[in-house]
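To whoever is on call:

I kicked off a structure prediction for a single chain this morning and the downstream step that reads the tokens threw a length-mismatch warning. I double-checked the sequence; it's 331 residues and nothing unusual in it as far as I can see. Pasting both halves so you can look.
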Amino acid sequence: MSGEIETKRIPKLNLGRFPTPMYELARLGGALGRRILVKRDDLSGVSTGGNKVRKLEYLLYDAVDQGADIVLTTGGAQSNHAMLTAACCNMLCLEAMLVLKGRGVMGRAGNLMIDELLGAEVRFVDTDSYGDVYAEMARIEDGLRAKGRRPYHIPVGGSVPLGTLGYVDCAREIFSDALEAGVKIDRIVCTAGSGGTMAGLLLGALLYGDGCRVTGVAVDDGPFEDVVAELVNGAAELLGRGDVHISASDADVYPCFGAGYARPSKAGLEAIRLAAKTEGLILDPVYTGKTMAGLVEMCGNGKIGAHETVVFLHSGGIASVFAIDPADIVE
């Protein structure tokens, strides 16, 4: 982009198929009375696609650079991040071990079916606490080292400063495409799940976005403002941009999580139907459906102004459509 700010180049792998498409959703925008575009990161080119591939390009470069021979990561039972980690590891001839919370939809469905197809080793921890999961991962990693293995640890969602850089790249793509099309982007709406995607987009908007706002729709009740600020500042340091620094109050988080994480909500299911019926766009009940529900609400209550041009980040998660537990649908 012309006028792009110079940042330090951080090495990464080329695992996905980027740039992903961005285009206008004219019928959905007409229904909402706003100009809405979609950034299709569900088409990132690995397995069923999704946002984690951008993060993994940086994290798995680091794993390979450190000589790792096995990668451990975590998430919920139906974790998109864990599944995509396994898929990307296969591309690099690395073993993957997924240490997942034993909660939610289990069995041979959704991402767990794909994990099986990918040949990943999956272990479950019967807990609601990531503290317990990380303690088990540390125990496993110590055991692997004792056997001469070289494990590499990726936290939930790949949401660390290094992984966050993947969504600085995405923001650069968005603003570059918009510039070429002669479109001024006023706001990006994305999921706030583990924080890294929102943080990268926010840092990218600060660097390249000419006043563009980033709103993260929270899909659980975590402390996203604090997490996002920490990730933005850490990623800025990696890029040699220590002059860019935000506080928690600078992170715009909109709550739309219903009964809780991975609990499909009425508003989320209505938003899934709206996107499908207007645009043939398939969203998922855990992340993007609730994010679209947040976008719909913000258009209705005026948080998103009538003259704003908005980019909706489709971050993937399609496998969750095939792992809905009807008992979890909150009407």
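Update from on-call: the warning came from a stale cache, not from the record. Cleared it. Sanity check on the structure: The chain has two domains: 22-50+161-328, 52-158.
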